[in-house]
Amino acid sequence: MKIRTFIATASLVASGSLMAVSGSAQAALYTTCVGDGGAVTVSNDLVVPAGKSCTLTGTKVKGTVTVEAGADLVAAGATFNGAVTVKENAYLDLTDTTVKGALTTDSAFGARLEKSSLKAVDATKGFVYAVDSTLAGNVRTEAGELYVSGSTLSGSLTGEGNQYSDVYDTTVKGALTVDGNTLGGVFCASEVYGAATYTGNADNLQIGGEGLLGSCAGASYFGGDLDITDNTANALLDNSIVRGGLTATGNNPVLVVGELARIRGAVTGETAAAGASFSRSARAAAPQDRGAALAAKADERAAAARADADAAGDSGL
Fold first, then answer.
1. CB atoms within 10 A of CB 67
2. Is residue 3 within 8 Å of residue 30, measured between CB atoms?
3. Who's near 310: CB < 8 A, 6+ residues apart?
4. In whole angstroms, what is the distance from residue 242 CA to residue 135 CA?
5. Dihedrals φ, ψ of 305, to 5°?
6. Interatomic CA distance for residues 293 and 35, integer angstroms
7. Which of 55, 165, 167, 261 has CB 3.0 to 4.6 Å from 185, enough for a Cys bridge?
């Protein structure tokens, strides 16, 4: 890993060499990472320069982390004390890593979070793939792909204008919102304790049970109200307990409710029972494992990043 520290100051005085500035000048200190890094502590901010790759194993960064445009950061067993920012077409891959600040991605290639602990996540474009992770803040994704499995979220989960928002075997302690997803979404064997809303989605919505997106063996739980409204998706609600009320208005086709759905509160709007033809179609449909496809895309980018980092060399720190 080629690590270089930079100091930017408000004014510099030159007399054959670079000299110090007055104590009133504001300095910004950061470290760049290109290549492979090990179990060292970076005492300031860390930057992966545009188009470069950095791998970190057991590294601790006391400041913020920035992955510049087109760059890659692959980290395992790392700790980042500050916020993490991932820029255009950049990639972040975290395994067994703790991020104590917020994660923000803007037009990134994507972020894979596996067996990791983070706070808030705010992603615009690109994908977010979170598996077996703990997310202590709100998670919001827009205009990308969202796949969450085996995770716990202390705040809310929002998928707005995504291709899809799929949730498996996950607990959401806040609200759940899936709005305007062109390929709909899946909610399988999961729990949400705040209000849940599915609105303006297309293609297919599978909320528990067997549907056109495959089979879901486990039951789901909604601790508050569930609103499924104004969708053009083929929408199914089954094998779920809804502690609050169900609102199903403006859906075309109407929401199909399976025999294993239990709604404790009032039902508002129009629903249809799952008929034999729907059940046969669901069983015959080839499961669409979007998580596997997304993982393969992440694997390919991560492998290229590791190869680039290896070629850049190891600092031996």
1. 28
2. no
3. 35, 36
4. 24
5. -65, -45
6. 28
7. 165
Which pTM does this prediction carry? 0.89
> For residue 287, which of 114, 141, 199, 166 has the smallest C-alpha distance?
166
Contact 226, 246 (CB under 8 A): yes
* 212 CB neighbour count, 10 Å cutoff: 20
Q: How far apart are CA 260 and CA 215, in angstroms?
A: 14
For residues 60 and 42, the answer to whether their CB atoms sit within 8 Å is yes
Contact 54, 68 (CB under 8 A): no
Nearest to 105 by CA among 79, 127, 81, 124: 124
CA dihedral 54, 60, 64, 65 (to 10 degrees): 10
Percent pLDDT > 90 in the chain is 81
CA distances from 238 to 22, 172, 215, 221 (A): 68, 19, 11, 11
Q: Which residue has the higher pLDDT, 165 or 212?
A: 165
**Cα–Cα distance for residue pair 94/46, rounded to 1 Å:** 15
Residue 168 corresponds to which tokens in the numbers above? 């498996």
C-alpha pair distances (Å), 95 with each of 11, 75, 79, 141: 41, 6, 11, 20
Lowest mean pLDDT among 15-29, 89-103, 293-307: 15-29
**How far apart (Å, rounded) are the C-alpha atoms in residues 31 and 29?**
7
